[in-house]
Design a protein that fits this description.
Helix 1 links the parallel strand 1 and strand 2. The chain is globular, with a radius of gyration of 19 Å. The two termini are 33 Å apart. The chain is an alpha/beta fold and 359 residues long. The protein is built from twelve helices and 15 strands. The strands form four sheets. Strands 3-2-1-4-5-8-12 form a seven-stranded parallel β-sheet, with helices on both faces.
């Protein structure tokens, strides 16, 4: 088995990728410096997840406390392993559009420059490796808000018969809209991953995700919708709803299903591919619907505060059309809907949250 390099290896997607590929017998190099704690505070730290990975996988998992903006440190890791690296899963990011507006230079350097560093080291030291990048639906800016939407009792929904009724496809324009600075930095990275594929013939893939979630998420108010919501319900923490009457819709994909998609691409890679990736029509909810589900699953009531102004550049309705990926890789489907995802998050984290243990 070859070497798999995972950035953001202590985070939601990264830790899932570590577990998946360690489980297949690969040696996994994890790169993570717990920047999530810097972005969102101590409760969002991923340190607990790193410790679990090291305890469980032992020598098969090799953690590196490295910042992806540090090109020299990355070069040393790539030089050491060279062509032995068969797969790069790039999941490290500054993930919040609110936070990006506070520190645009940091946001862009992490999301765009960090991605460029990784692509260049891959090209120089292991050009045959598969490179998988976690992008975001925010690259489409607020174009989704121009869709013909209908207000229902508990959610917004697209007009029946619209070409995006089954979800938003990769054909949606990226231009002539407001993105948020986070959306721009991720779009720059997204295009770099595509360009390294097309220009250098590298086997790269961009996965433009909606809400990614799971029990390994260190949810925070500014990022990690379902995880943070569940934590608020369990701990009795008041929850703020920002705009759109709480009826904004997101599709939600469990990290195990996303990493399963990565694995399918790794087994049969292509050049410069782009896929919208999410729970689609199988797994989606509005904020109001998610709150109701959390309350039902825990038997606890949530205290909410409504803020009339929505977050800048936020989507009213996002459901991913995953049919392009499914056409390329028949047999892949999301396996957990929103209720199953919330049940998993609550079951695996409630004791730790309630005890308010340090992260």
């Amino acid at each position: 088995m070859g070497v798999v390099l995972v950035t953001g290896s202590s985070g939601l997607v990264g830790s899932e990728a570590v577990a998946h590929f360690c489980g297949l017998g690969h040696t996994v190099l994890g790169i993570d410096n717990d920047m999530r704690r810097v972005f969102f505070g101590d409760t969002a730290s991923t340190e607990w997840n790193r410790r679990q990975l090291e305890d469980h996988w032992g020598k098969r998992f090799e953690h590196h406390n490295v910042d992806i903006r540090d090109a020299a440190a990355l070069r040393r890791i790539f030089e050491r392993h060279g062509t032995g690296i068969e797969l790069v899963v790039h999941a490290a990011a500054q993930p919040s559009h609110d936070w990006a507006a506070r520190e645009p230079l940091t946001d862009f350097s992490v999301n765009a420059t960090g991605t460029l560093n990784l692509l260049e080291q891959t090209r120089r030291h292991c050009p045959a490796a598969v490179f998988v990048f976690c992008s975001t639906n925010k690259v489409y800016g607020d174009n989704p808000n121009l869709l013909p939407l209908i207000e229902l009792e508990h959610r917004w929904e697209i007009e029946p018969g619209h070409r995006y009724e089954q979800g938003i496809a990769e054909s949606m324009s990226l231009d002539f809209c407001k993105h948020s600075l986070f959306g721009v930095s991720k779009l720059a990275a997204d295009m770099l991953v595509q360009e390294y594929g097309r220009y250098f013939g590298m086997r790269t893939a961009v996965f433009r995700a909606g809400c990614l979630t799971g029990s390994g998420h260190s949810g925070a108010e500014l990022h990690g919708f379902l995880s943070y919501l569940a934590r608020c319900v369990v701990t009795g923490t008041p929850y703020s709803i920002y705009g759109y009457k709480g009826k904004q819709v997101r599709d939600n994909l469990h990290s195990t299903d996303l990493v399963a998609a990565f694995a399918r691409f790794f087994d049969a890679p292509r050049i410069a591919e782009v896929y919208n990736m999410g729970g689609g029509r199988f797994s989606n909810c509005s904020m109001l619907e998610a709150i109701s589900m959390c309350e039902e699953l825990t038997g606890q009531r949530l205290t909410t505060r409504y803020v009339e102004e929505n977050r800048s550049g936020d989507h009213i309705w996002w459901i991913s059309d995953t049919r392009r990926f499914e056409d390329h890789f028949p047999g892949w489907k999301p396996t957990r809907d929103v209720r199953a995802i919330l049940s998993d998050i609550i079951a695996r984290n409630s004791d730790r949250w309630a005890a308010r243990e340090p992260e």
